[in-house]
Amino acid sequence: MHLSLETLLVPHDNALVVKSGRALTVGYIGPIDCVLCFRCVSKSWCALIDSPEFAKLHLKHSPKTNSNFWLLLRQTEYFGYKKRCFYPLNIDSLNSRVVTPRELTNPLRSSEFDTKIIGSCNGLLLISNTVDEIAIWNPSTGKYKKLPVLSVDREEDGHIRFGFGYDVVNNDYKVVRIVQFVGTEKGSLCSDVRVYSLKSNSWKGIDKEFPYYVRNKEEPGAYLNGALHWVVSSEIKIPLQQLIVAFDLETDMCRIVPHPPYTNERFSVKLEVLGGCLCTFHSFWDDFFL
After folding, report:
1. Is residue 226 within 8 Å of residue 167, measured between CB atoms?
2. Burial, 148: exposed, middle or buried (Cβ in 10 Å; 0-12, 13-18, 19+)?
3. CA separation, residue 203 to residues 11, 174, 175, 253 (Å)
4. φ/ψ bin of 101: left (φ > 0), alpha (ψ from -120 to 50), beta (otherwise)
5. Which of 115, 186, 192, 239 shows its CA 20 to 30 Å from the CA of 67?
6. Count of alpha carbons within 13 Å of 95, Cβ hemisphere only?
7. Any idea what the Cα angle at residue 289 is, between residues 222 and 67, rounded to 5°?
8. Which InterPro entries does the entry mention (predicted)?
9. Counting Cβ atoms within 10 Å, is residue 152 exposed (0-12), middle (13-18) or buried (19+)?
10. Maximum CA pair distance of the chain?
11. Can you give the chain as a three-state secondary structure string?
């Protein structure tokens, strides 16, 4: 008799009830590293936990618990030696007096380049050494996927921004790359927008116009509700107008999102996602306002 995943794994509070016939087994659905330990029980359990359906089910119920939030610490120098490492730190462990995080194996580790996190979504990270070396990485399982190389013409003259998110309708993780060139003529701007699909493992160009200048070079797009969000300006002038644009990962369409009033247009506005809401915080040099 074939049992569906929903029959095998029934959510119950913060646990999963594994149902097989009349037998019930209860297992905690907390940290993914604990769940992965059950892969050793049997081949069928291993196949079940490795299945995309289980990943969706775990992701569906993870937000209902408070124990699945992690900080990812990045160490770039160690006693004078260049050692670029990542360490996961469970938020709950911060209440402990002594915390010893374990080092993650960086799939792009290089003695020449500093690996940066340029996006995150549903526990997956978008990491990069250079604009030509990018990967989607699951730090919980160690699995990763390198993206096809997409070179940038006149890289030294352009400003490159990235965003990483999930297309719910098409069940596909996508990467958005925006390369912008500011012309010599006053206010002229040229944007090249490309979208990578994990499902097809390919890049595509976006023909639709992107008439906005993305403000913060170091800030990746903030993902929320199927869209990536950036702080942008409609004109290149000082002081820069600060708007919020949303790029829909299903339709590749852009729209302006209403935002709270800014106290000072000269302040730098940054975006984050907190508690299912898009949040703005303003900074002026080293001062921050939420």
Report:
1. yes
2. exposed
3. 37, 10, 9, 17
4. beta
5. 115
6. 3
7. 55
8. F-box-assoc_dom_typ1, F-box-assoc_interact_dom, F-box-like_dom_sf, Gal_Oxase/kelch_b-propeller, SCF_F-box_component
9. middle
10. 74
11. CCCCHHHHEEEECCEEEEEECCEEEEEECCCHHHHHHHHHCCHHHHHHHHCHHHHHHHHHHHHHCCCCCEEEEEEEEECCEEEEEEEEEEHHHHHCCCCCCCCECCCCCCCCCCCEEEEEECCEEEEEEECCEEEEECCCCCCEEECCCCCCCCHHHCEEEEEEEEECCCCEEEEEEEEEEECCCCCCEEEEEEEEECCCCEEEECCCCCCCEECCCCCCCEEECCEEEEEEECCCCCCCCCEEEEEECCCCCEEEECCCCCCCCCCEEEEEEECCEEEEEEEECCEEEC
The predicted model scores a pTM of 0.76
Residues facing residue 23 across a β-bridge: 20
In the chain, where the domains are located: 5-64, 69-139
- pLDDT tens-digit series, residues 18-75: 544 444 343 444 556 666 777 787 787 777 777 777 777 766 666 555 555 566 666 5
177-232 pLDDT per residue, tens: 999 887 666 667 888 999 999 999 999 999 888 888 888 777 899 999 999 999 99
Phi, psi for 203 (deg, rounded to 5) = -100, 150
State phi, psi for 47 to the nearest 5 degrees.
Answer: -65, -35
User: Is the CB of residue 126 less than 8 Å from the CB of residue 18?
Assistant: no
176 in Cβ contact with 193 (< 8 Å): yes
CB atoms within 10 A of CB 223: 23
At 49, which amino acid appears?
I
Task: Specify the residue for token string 């829909």.
Answer: 248
